[in-house]
Amino acid sequence: MTTLLIVFICIIALVLLISWAKFNPFLAFLIVSIAAGLWLGIPLNKITTSVQKGIGDTLGSLVVIIGLGAMLGKLVAESGAAQKITQVLMRTFGEKHLQWALMVTGFVVGIPLYYNVGFVLMVPLIFSVVYQYKLPAVYIGLPMLAALSVTHGFLPPHPSPTALVSQLKANMGLTLLYGIMLAIPAIIVAGPLFSKTLKHIRSEPLQTFQPKVIAPEQLPHAANSFLTALLPVILLTVTTIVPLTMPLTGPAKDVNDFISDPVIVMLLSLLVATFTLGMHTGRPIKAIMDIYGDAIKDVALILLVVAGAGVLKQVFTDSGVSTTIAESIKSWPVHPLILGWLIAAVIRICVGSATVAGLTAAGIIGPIIPQMQVNANLMVLSIGAGSLFFSHVNDSGFWMYKEYFNLSIRDTIRSWSMMETIVSVMGLIGVLILDIFV
């Protein structure tokens, strides 16, 4: 019991450092991890080894994927491909179904685009629709934001689900396929259906955020925009389905395994995008590389947070805490997938960051998955769903939404926080249903 109490105190300390003391999450992880190592009896000369191993093991498989994914997302936005995708979907769905058009846009663009970048770049598109059709901003915009949030929490190559796949030794392609299956109903319920209850919320988006759009003649073609933005998903899906439909042996299996590696998927996708959305549209290579450089700056802090979570996980592993937790949890009358969701949800409420919540929960659950007899891909999605639960005043996304839409805190909780909660609960329900069949 003493060991479990130490773990609990360390998590509380982490929460307080990030939410109350306003520490940078990476520094908070380092401080708490070292303190936990000392308290749990790791020898002084071994603590720094745990720190270095935690950072190395976590970032070793992720830094390339997250970096390349950020570059691809930035180019999709800067080239006008995101704007073109929106235009096509708006024409396809028509004025009566604007919400659905924006929701699909958020889902398509949200797959390669990181959440904060996606939010800043896509919200002006919401406002352009709001101004053009004189419709309530929250009612029209929430479905797109629900889609962006779900892709951020559920689908690789986003940082948290990608890191969870690595930590829990899941399969990237299967996690993506299952994640899409869960994402669609979650977005529909939390987006178009839930937003029908929000038509009365008055919102006047600030003039500052009125859109600056690219001229139509300068936008890439629709096929180019869709195929380039979705290429990582296409490659991962194809290389996952092919072995399930036909037996592969010898060189064919080697080629499929090579192409299905997430690093190769993202590299191939970025190289294609460099030509299709970059050089093919008249951009000089230096300008494209400048976009990639800015993209890395956007995700640098995310990489450090991921690394910090890896340190805490390693300290828990090296100290033997994981074994103790495993013995304690085995007697709990709770389904393992619900347990993973619950741990992530509690940390999310306390800390605010979905990434921190997901990675911290994975650090606790990961080492005991073999004893749980649970599908690792579904555990990734369960923890990912839990990490989105009830965003409130300690989450930067809460404040971005509030300020952009010019809402009161009450209306922000009524719309944004409830949307995130619905997405989270729908994700858990979907995971439990999938668990019956896979």
From TrEMBL:
<dbReference type="Pfam" id="PF02447">
    <property type="entry name" value="GntP_permease"/>
</dbReference>
<keyword id="KW-0472">Membrane</keyword>
<feature type="transmembrane region" description="Helical">
    <location>
        <begin position="299"/>
        <end position="317"/>
    </location>
</feature>
<feature type="transmembrane region" description="Helical">
    <location>
        <begin position="97"/>
        <end position="130"/>
    </location>
</feature>
<feature type="transmembrane region" description="Helical">
    <location>
        <begin position="413"/>
        <end position="437"/>
    </location>
</feature>
<keyword id="KW-0812">Transmembrane</keyword>
<feature type="transmembrane region" description="Helical">
    <location>
        <begin position="226"/>
        <end position="246"/>
    </location>
</feature>
<feature type="transmembrane region" description="Helical">
    <location>
        <begin position="59"/>
        <end position="77"/>
    </location>
</feature>
<protein>
    <submittedName>
        <fullName>Gluconate transporter</fullName>
    </submittedName>
</protein>
<feature type="transmembrane region" description="Helical">
    <location>
        <begin position="175"/>
        <end position="194"/>
    </location>
</feature>
<feature type="transmembrane region" description="Helical">
    <location>
        <begin position="137"/>
        <end position="155"/>
    </location>
</feature>
<keyword id="KW-0813">Transport</keyword>
<keyword id="KW-1133">Transmembrane helix</keyword>
<feature type="transmembrane region" description="Helical">
    <location>
        <begin position="258"/>
        <end position="278"/>
    </location>
</feature>
<feature type="transmembrane region" description="Helical">
    <location>
        <begin position="27"/>
        <end position="47"/>
    </location>
</feature>
<feature type="transmembrane region" description="Helical">
    <location>
        <begin position="337"/>
        <end position="362"/>
    </location>
</feature>
<keyword id="KW-1003">Cell membrane</keyword>
<feature type="transmembrane region" description="Helical">
    <location>
        <begin position="374"/>
        <end position="393"/>
    </location>
</feature>
<dbReference type="InterPro" id="IPR003474">
    <property type="entry name" value="Glcn_transporter"/>
</dbReference>
<comment type="similarity">
    <text>Belongs to the GntP permease family.</text>
</comment>
<feature type="transmembrane region" description="Helical">
    <location>
        <begin position="5"/>
        <end position="21"/>
    </location>
</feature>
